[in-house]
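Quick one: structure for this chain?
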Amino acid sequence: MRKESYQIKRPEHLVIGDPWYFETVDSQKLKSLVIDVIPQKEFVAALTIEETEYDECMTNIIFALEEELDTYLKGYMYAGQKEQVKKLPVDTAEYLIQVDGRAANIHTHEDGYWGQQLTLYSEEKGQKHPDAYIITISTPDDMSFEEVKGTMGTLFESMKLIPQKEKTEEKSMSEPKR
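Got it. Here's what it folds into:
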């Protein structure tokens, strides 16, 4: 099993969802069915691709402040942060990823939940302040690590491998579920 992390140019807009939803669902309902992120200008972006024991690949797309990015790349969060999870449903056995005008369809071969958006935030005086967005998507087992890497390379600009570093002890965030 492999895992690689990449620095990417922060996109202006990322949208992921079942293409059928974009054609048939009203805009209010669409908000609950798709992942639609416009990251803050001060955030940087990275992604990880990891093979699972079931021959699937999990991709995490992370938006955060540069000085905190490494913490999220390692799968950790900070004490006191809160989590908000939004699942990515698929009803037509495919989902569409759109990144700043570039797009790719991923054929899942089955319906269900194929990812999620995890928003890590802090609260001050009742106001939520996003600290990071971590978008996790799964690909079917017939899509190899190299194919996932190639697809992400066409969607995200300036994809550069981040060298592996030693792990440190921090608070772990909950595992995304499909």
